Batch of 3 targets.
Target 1
Amino acid sequence: MNDTRVERLCAGVWAFDDANEDSFYLVEGETRALCIDTGAARAPLMPLLSKYTDKPIDLALTHAHIDHMYRAAEFENIYLGGADLRAWRTLGPLYAAGHALYALPPRQLGHRRFRAIEEGHVFDLGGRSLTAISAPGHTPGSMLFALARDGLLFTGDAFGSGEAIWMWMPGCLTTSAYRDSLDRVLPKLAPYAQFRWLGGHRLQGVRGERHPHGRRLTIQAARDMRALCDEMLSGRAQGKRVRIVPFVPMRVYSLGDASMVVRWRQIR
């Protein structure tokens, strides 16, 4: 049984939110369709997607974390940022450990058949195209996908999804490296400032009982994230203790529309 929530964003573009609040997206062109991420639902994904398109469906991953790629093996053509593939010795074991964290049955990915993409890669779907933008931080090879025709930017977890970005896991960049990455990324985001930004867990941006601090994901979150890195590195930011997994001490730091969960030793 699939209890995934579905929303039509515009003609030929759908958003899906699974029971874990993992978000993934389907973009249909005239000749092909592209799924962006897969979520981590137990039910097979392809039967659900096939209800919305009869075109061949490729998969583009924003980054290599289990809640974005658990159903990847269902696709023939799978694309992932080259830096994430090159970091598989770190990200692969993290994927394996994620089965326990999310209480999921183990699934093999066959990552060796993934196709590496870099900045500027274009997915031509026929009448619609998406362009990849490199945004290292949450993982070394995190990618954004811009759908200019429809004013949509798919951001994965590059800046959080309305709540804190997780920067405490193996493979996440240090605070200074993330700051440097944001210095490179922010100028490239200027053409997309007025786009609708769609994160990897978009329901986190809907403020309510479950997400009392949720806020809409916009370019301001990326700008504030850059400022937050400076505040953390200077020692001016005051973090609060938070517990996500046992025996891993970490803190959450916030500034404006940005917040970050990190281990102390990564603030360097």
Target 2
Amino acid sequence: MTIKWKDNLTDQLCEAFLLMKDKDEMYAFLEDVATIGEIKALSQRLEVARLLSKGLTYPQIAQKTGASTATISRVKKCLEHGTNGYNIAIERFEIKE
């Protein structure tokens, strides 16, 4: 059973993210809308995705990020079979650098 998660409320959340004008506004919004633990977990997953895309091994990634092998495996599955969100972000980071 697929849970429908895209709705008016999640649309509103996405729009709120897009309306933030700079990193300071984004930090303020994130701190209000999520726990520090949730923010750190999302940040860790993005870093895991970046390191996987560079070809690092699970043990190397676990050592660098503190992520569990379960988290690394989940992120790898998203990179390979997901909706391409991680790949878009990683590609745009590379362009920015």
Target 3
Amino acid sequence: MKAIQLIGQYGYLMFKTFTKPDSWKMFFRQYIREMEKQGIGSLSITIIISIFIGSAITMQMVLNTDSPLLPKYVTGLTTRETILLEFSSTILCLILAGKVGSNIASEIGTMRITEQIDALDIMGVNSANYLILPRIAAFVSVVPFLVLFSMFFGIWGGYAMARFTSIISVEDYVYGIQYAFNSYYITYSLIKSVVFAYLISSISAFYGYFVKGGALEVGKASTDAVVKSSIFVLLFNVILTDLLLM
């Protein structure tokens, strides 16, 4: 029964959110601000994590595929497929759920308990549209670019491991990166990232918008937002993989 109530609340909130803004000028001002905060603010962690993950995948593949029956370029091939298909879309979005999702939930939750949202409603402003739509639109816009950065720096991290160590030759790694490349995998990852970005931002906004109590409940709402959005990201990862790749 509680699940049905939550689904109804979520649907009603999204119905209120996706309406025409009262002021397009204000919407775009907030949209740009959120893009800067969510995009540029997440760029450094995206690059750092991607480089180290790409390096780690390369090392692990060399250690676990050390067989005369397997060609050397398998390391580059597997690193590329792992980064394109799963890490840069799914795992990166799970990381961003903890960073951006908790931030969205705590910001909106703080506005709720300090009665700023109530004040907006009293003034006749659609608080859901005013607060949530720019955040969802901004996050959905910036995540595909973060995914592309992650793909590039993840593969570059593997290249750096080949270039500056002796675990694999640069020629074998680069050949593996180029071997049987399927450009659709990039499209697939970008489609997933857009869906994941919407899930993370909307679920986080939902938990922040309906928080009740004080600062303790805001912290709990932020935790619930991260947990629930991560679960839905993993669920839709399976669904989208079945729809787009099978």
